[in-house]
Amino acid sequence: MEALTAPAAPAAAAVLDRGRLALVLSGGGARGAYQVGVLKAIAELLPRDCAAPFRIICGTSAGAITAAVVASHASQFRAGVVNLERVWRNFHVDQVFRADTRSMLRSGSQWLAALLTGGWLIPAPRSVFDNRPLRELLERHVNFARIRQAIDHGSLEALAINAAAYRRALSVAFYESAHESAPWLTAWRRGEPADLSLDHLMASSAVPFLFPPVRMGTEYYGDGAMRQSAPLSPAIRLGADRLLVIGVRPPLGASHDALEIVNRGPSFGQVFGFMLDTLFMDGLHADLERCERDNRLIAAAGGRDCEGLRPIETLLLAPREDFGAIALRHAGELPRPLRVLLRTLGAWNAAGGALLSYLLFEGAYTRELIAIGHADAMARRDELQEFVVSAACRATTPG
């Protein structure tokens, strides 16, 4: 946690005794369906026409996309979640990246030609997959004008989208805010005010190697989880006092493929899945531990100023089961060319479950994850009632 000062709230906004509540969504590819299930449960616990209970929303990678949709429906939270769930329940891989035979052969041929010519005659592709279908999907479902309207009308205070700057080697939080929040630069992290756009979402979700980096200005950006050593920091710097964090991996990780590692050694597919696990989640859990440590320091000081720190309440919702095993049950739903590629990479068995779980943008899989997220949230209904719902109801109560 950092020594931060929260900006003053606009006069029209209701400020709760316990401070501003922020929503923090981690990355996770197709695992993001779990977050949709959690949000669905929260929407059901709130009054039907309630505005979003989150004053500040921050997202990374797939979480940035969900964050943008929620922000664009800040005045009608349940309607936004319904729209979000509709998309995720009916997902197909070809809505995210091209995985048909022709596209896969073209990409493979270009890689081979670049290898044979040493890159002199034919350059290597910028990524394994062509994710232009994702941009087309986002154009239909994310309304940035509505986000700005929500900020102007007080339904939302700030939205932040995280990306990684390749040239500057920085984790960058692009944000729009109702406050004049000064940009920040510290420990390889930067906050930059911006007119958020599809480019920011595409950059935040540009998983290295899989999807091409996105150029904005003179810089190229990639997945926001890279270099993100403090995922909670943007929300805190934008004024949050309380954080609802939705992750997509069990806190202790998964071990279903441990035997296969011992017997055969990790395949390329398994190593890549391990990398994605590290990329999307390790920083989040480390930052939550830091937050708990700093809160203990503040408590030990009797609540007095402790090196400029202020207490931050957090509530983490994360799955209790491994999504790799679930993904393996749905692997046959992937397009055949993608199945061939994953089999070649050694990701078509228990060892490849982790990688599959991030790439399986197919409805049967995402629907199961939505159901799990919903059930996990409802199992913690009392905590959510106290942390999110009761505060939201107080904020919208007249007088």
3D structure, described in words:
The chain is of the alpha/beta class. It is about 45% helix and about 15% strand. It is built from 15 helices and 10 strands. Strands 1, 2, 3, 4, 5, 6, 7, 8, 9 and 10 form a 10-stranded mixed beta sheet that branches. Helix 2 (about 60-70) crosses helix 3 (about 75-90) and helix 11 (about 325-330) crosses helix 13. The longest helix has about 35 residues, at about 270-300. The chain is globular, with a radius of gyration of 21 Å.
* Arithmetic mean of pLDDT: 85
- Report the uncertain regions: 3-16, 253-259, 394-399
| Contiguous helical run count | 15
**Which percent range fits the helix content?**
40-55%
Main β-sheet description: 10 strands, mixed
Structural class: alpha/beta
Termini Cα gap: 35 Å
**What string, H for helix and E for strand, traces the elements in order?**
EHEHHHHHEEEEHEEHEHHEHHHHH
Report the count of strand segments. 10
* Cα shape: globular
Using only C-alpha atoms, the radius of gyration works out to: 21 Å
Beta-strand portion reads 5-15%
Secondary structure elements and pairings:
Elements: E1 21-25, H1 33-45, E2 56-60, H2 62-72, H3 77-89, H4 101-116, H5 132-141, H6 144-153, E3 158-165, E4 170-177, E5 184-186, E6 189-193, H7 198-204, E7 214-216, E8 219-223, H8 233-237, E9 242-246, H9 258-264, H10 268-300, E10 313-317, H11 323-330, H12 336-344, H13 353-359, H14 363-379, H15 381-396
Parallel strand pairs: 1-2, 1-9, 2-3, 4-6, 9-10
Antiparallel strand pairs: 3-4, 3-8, 5-6, 7-8
Helix pairs in contact: 1-3, 1-14, 2-3, 10-13, 11-13, 11-14
